[in-house]
Write a structure and sequence with these properties.
By secondary structure, the chain is of the alpha+beta class. It has two domains: about 250 residues, Naphthalene 1,2-dioxygenase Alpha Subunit, Chain A, domain 1 (Alpha-Beta Complex); about 110 residues, Rieske [2Fe-2S] iron-sulphur domain (Rieske Iron-sulfur Protein), CATH 2.102.10. It is about 25% helix and about 25% strand. The chain is built from nine helices and 17 strands. The strands form three sheets. The chain has a seven-stranded antiparallel sheet, with no helix packed on it. A seven-stranded antiparallel sheet has the order 11-17-16-15-14-13-12. Strands 6-7-8 form a three-stranded antiparallel sheet, with no helix packed on it. Strand 6 and strand 7 form a beta hairpin. Helix 3 crosses helix 9. Bound molecules: FE2/S2 (inorganic) cluster (FES) and fe (ii) ion (FE2). The site of fe (ii) ion has 5 residues, from loops. The site of FE2/S2 (inorganic) cluster has 10 residues, from loops.
């Protein structure tokens, strides 16, 4: 019999009202319902910080990246004063979007009639507008959006009242201080769309329970279930750690340049899920991340980037190290794509019933609590 998906918020409320020791995976309706996506865009993505990538990718004046956050086109750029700035990416004439993707621009020229904006959002000029008496270019400025940099990450937020990133994530900064997350350089960045719900991919990242099986062809043998630690989550993030086998040399602390990490830390990987949708794998040798945004219930937009720790920058084999890293990540991604698209396919079926969670899925439980909390707060509960 087809399931009743009429009230996904009520389904999630029931699901999140049990203690972790009895918890099940989230109900299917929160993955498949259009109404639930609407609630997420309004109460989660419209209220919280969304990561558009690394600051070192926007290092030169005019470097920009665009995003569509909760339905709002936004551009983030490095302005003429070398400050990061976020603003509306919608022209103030007949409302075309302005810039696309990632790139560098001296000015922002609308692709429709060439109204042209400075990097601070002020209108610089507009062709053939001298006969409209009411038009004054000084009255036009692209609306500004909150933008913050934290440990090399660039975040934007549509809610003027959201707590600053550094306040929400202060505990993360302390926890991984010795990794010095600013000391990593992004050497690749891609955008993808996968056919799965954004939460399926987020949750896939939050648990390493799937590593031995889903990733049997790559890293599965290098990570043991007994070496995974999943502490309870915090209000703005969850995390878990795994030990990587020393044979994955690029994941280890640099033997001579890194004396910041001691003992087991030198081979410890942090998997950080910074709510709602920035997932960072931080190893002593390399990092990679995905920043997710829903595209309806059945698709996720993915920003995928990463690179090596700067400790490796002067090594003779840096380019081999990077090639090895990118090859590995691409192979791992193919496996994750297969698993997460299969999950979405399965949970759309009438037979889908959420099962109980392992102790290795503690972060998934905490993520569900976060989502329910944001939606309840948005509804004024
Ligand atoms: S819509 Fe941008 S210049 Fe006309
Ligand atoms: Fe995976």
């Amino acid at each position: 019999m087809p399931k009743d998906h009429s009230d996904p918020i009520a389904d999630l409320r029931r699901n999140t009202s049990v203690p972790f020791e009895q918890a099940r995976a989230m109900p299917t309706s929160v993955y498949t319902s259009e109404d639930f996506v609407e609630a997420e865009l309004k109460h989660v993505f419209g209220k919280d910080w969304y990561c558009v990538g690394r600051a070192d990718a926007l290092s030169k004046t005019g470097d920009y990246v665009t995003a569509e956050l909760a339905g709002q086109p936004i551009v983030v750029l490095r302005d003429a004063d070398h400050q990061l700035r976020a603003m509306s990416n919608v022209c103030l004439h007949r409302m075309s979007t302005l810039l696309q993707g990632r790139g560098n621009a001296k000015t922002i020229v609308c692709p429709y009639h060439a109204w042209t904006y400075n990097l601070d959002g002020n209108l610089r000029g507009a062709p053939a507008m001298s006969q409209n008496d009411a038009f004054c270019k000084d009255h036009y400025r692209l609306p500004q959006v909150r933008c913050e940099e934290w440990l090399g990450w660039v975040f934007v937020c549509l809610d003027p009242d959201a707590e600053p990133v550094a306040v929400q994530l202060a505990e993360v900064a302390d926890m991984i201080a010795a990794y010095d997350m600013t000391n990593y350089s992004e050497s690749f960045y891609e955008e993808h769309v996968w056919d799965t719900n954004w939460k399926v991919l987020a949750e896939n990242f939050m648990e390493s329970y799937h590593l031995p099986v889903c990733h049997a062809g790559t890293i599965g043998g290098l990570s043991k279930l007994e070496d995974m630690v999943c502490p309870p989550g915090r209000p703005a993030f969850n995390y878990h750690t795994i030990l990587k086998d020393e044979s994955l040399r690029i994941a280890m602390a640099h033997p001579t340049k890194n004396d910041r990490l001691k003992g087991e830390e030198r081979k410890t990987t942090y998997l950080l899920a910074l709510y709602p949708s920035l997932m960072i794998t931080l190893t002593p040798g390399y990092f990679w991340y995905i920043s997710l945004h829903p595209k309806g219930p059945g698709q996720v937009h993915i920003r995928f980037g990463g690179g090596m720790s700067n400790d490796f920058a002067e090594d003779a084999d840096i380019s081999e190290n990077f090639t090895q890293l990118k090859t590995l990540l691409d192979e791992v991604n193919v496996e994750d794509r297969g698993c997460t698209e299969k999950v979405f396919n399965g949970l759309c079926s009438d037979a889908a019933t959420p099962g109980h969670l392992s102790h290795l899925e503690r972060p998934n439980y905490d993520f569900a609590q976060y989502l329910m909390g944001k939606i309840a707060a948005g509804l004024g509960e």
